[in-house]
Amino acid sequence: MTRVRHAVLGRLAVCVLSALCGLGSGCSESPRPAPIGLGEGAEWVEQVRSAHAHADAALASDDREAARSALRAAVDATVPEEIRPGHRRAVQQDLWFRLAELALSKQQHEQALQDVERGLALGHAPDVFTANLWIARGETLQALGRDTEAASSYYEALTINQRLLAELLRRPAEPAQ
Amino acid sequence: MVEHDDEEGVTAEEQAQAEALARALDGQASSPDGAAPADALETAALLRYAAGDGELDEGRAEAVLDALWPPGAQRPGDPSSAPALMRARARWRGPALAAALGFAAAAAALLWSRPGAEVAAPADGPQLQAPSEAATLPAPPTELLRAQAAAARDPATRDALDTAMGSYREAVLRRLAAQYPAHVGMLEAPAPRRLP
A64: domain range? Predict the structure, then answer.
């Protein structure tokens, strides 16, 4: 018990001395490691933006493999904790949508379906990104001959689309410039 | 593509398109120059059907179109001017009808739900995201919603969706970059501080 008390008092003393040094008692102050350059969230956003740009350039030269690699690297990148869940879902769903579209364009329907399902597994929201995945799912299932499931996916997409359109109609108009 | 303000409100063109859709919803003809987009009319027909104010069939759609364009006039987006598109539509007719039935049920459910409510997630699926987070992203422009609706009806129009998504994606990433700003980092560590 006494040993524990001494240990606590020792640590307390160290803390007090450290605080005094910090107030300028002659100790040199080691600078706190400061973030240099982009924050983690900003870096992630920039990485995603760069991946889309690379994919666009690769597709322009009909290099679908390079496009897929760029998008896949972005979707597999670690997402910083500061990124809000809804933003993460939207951005990653968009990447999965592009990956699915790429697979579809190469007639790789099973791959496309996997990409779509991984995107939808991130969450369902009434926004453009989730709706796009439903459309890609519909296209994929239709190509696989699963028409009923395809129709169900299209209806999910149209439901979201209609809702977004209704929201657009409710928005106030901008004042004339 | 029309420049879309991703902050607040809609552009003048979007407002005009929305008003055209509103007129179509009311069953009125478009402006005298007949500028209502065919997509808006189709959407209006679907919405009116969902509200019990119409029927979702080809005859109904034709009637709506006839009311807005004189017989014999070339309608915007008229498939008769694009045989390939016509063939593509015929190929998708079966699934499209099934999708339309599902859509009608969904539209009815949507009308009964309160505004702003989330779309129900599948029982085994993940939960919906909080609307407050979605609200921090730019609203999708009319062009994108129109291209998306077209792609859901006819996959042959997917290129338009890709194009519209490219612009919207840029706007979203710009908004996110603003929300997660770069730290004002110290490129050089400060010199150690010492007492005089």
Answer: 41-170
